[in-house]
């Protein structure tokens, strides 16, 4: 499948994962410290298909993924981002990790758009859940392609983790489950596509 593991990468700091956690945390902190800025960022950055249909504000597909409603929302997403992102980034590499993260956020919001249009119910949504579920889907793919183990995670434990994550969303209040499902599916498929692209290894002089 084009997968090769470089032993040196297992000790590298997952810089992109840490950077994304930092950006999300800084944006949230700024919104708390400067309430007017927080209201402005949420008003200008939240996502709904209405903004695409009437304003062509496509940037919201990404900006919504860096906004969070409260500290619990932020912490839950950042914990999942770290635990899944660390493994995915080290396995796929930083560039492919960032591509997967961004596209999972976009596709998660696009599935949310389809759900809004099909139900006629329109709502603003924020959060990194679509992107984070994309990492979860990617990790599920990596566990499968490595025949049941990735970073000492068994197939059974991974499937249970995915099920519980989706279950918690469907039984929670004010949760954009369409974005969760969209992120999960897109992350799985993107991991497959990105994993078959041969990784470019650096040459070292001897």
The largest pleated sheet is described as: 2 strands, antiparallel
Strand portion, in percent?
under 5%
Q: Which strand order do you get reading across the main beta sheet?
A: 1-2
The stretches of 5 or more residues where confidence is low (pLDDT under 50) are: 201-206
Structural class: mainly alpha
What would you call the quaternary organization?
single chain
- State the shape: globular
The separation of the N and C termini measures 29 Å
What is the number of beta strands?
2
Query: What are the secondary-structure elements, in order, as H or E?
Result: HHHHHHHEEHH
Mean pLDDT: 85
Radius of gyration (CA) equals 17 Å
> Count of helices?
9
Helix content: 55-70%
Textual characterization of the structure:
There is one protein chain. By secondary structure, this protein is mainly α. It is 68% helix and 2% strand. A two-stranded antiparallel sheet has the order 1-2. A hairpin with a 2-residue loop joins β1 and β2. α6 (94-119) crosses α7. Mean pLDDT is 85; it is low at 201-206.
From the structure above, extract its key features.
single chain; two-stranded antiparallel sheet; globular; mainly alpha; 206 residues
SSE topology:
Elements: H1 15-33, H2 35-45, H3 49-55, H4 60-63, H5 71-92, H6 94-119, H7 129-145, E1 149-150, E2 153-154, H8 155-170, H9 177-195
Antiparallel strand pairs: 1-2
């Amino acid at each position: 499948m084009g997968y090769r593991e470089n032993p040196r990468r297992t000790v590298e700091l997952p810089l992109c994962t840490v950077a994304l956690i930092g950006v999300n945390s800084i944006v949230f902190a700024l919104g708390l410290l400067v309430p007017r800025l927080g209201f402005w960022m949420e008003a200008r950055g939240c996502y709904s298909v209405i903004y695409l249909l009437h304003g062509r504000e496509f940037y919201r597909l990404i900006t919504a993924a860096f906004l969070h409603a409260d500290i619990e929302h932020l912490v839950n997403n950042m914990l999942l981002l770290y635990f899944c992102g660390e493994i995915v980034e080290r396995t796929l590499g930083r560039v492919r990790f960032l591509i997967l993260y961004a596209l999972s956020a976009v596709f998660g919001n696009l599935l949310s758009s389809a759900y809004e249009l099909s139900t006629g119910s329109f709502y603003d949504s924020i959060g990194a859940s679509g992107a984070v579920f994309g990492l979860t889907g990617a990790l599920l793919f990596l566990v499968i392609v490595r025949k049941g183990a990735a970073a000492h995670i068994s197939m059974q434990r991974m499937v249970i983790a995915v099920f519980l994550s989706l279950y918690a969303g469907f039984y929670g209040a004010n949760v954009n489950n369409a974005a969760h499902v969209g992120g999960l599916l897109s992350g799985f498929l993107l991991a497959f596509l990105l994993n078959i692209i041969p990784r470019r290894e650096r040459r070292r002089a001897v």
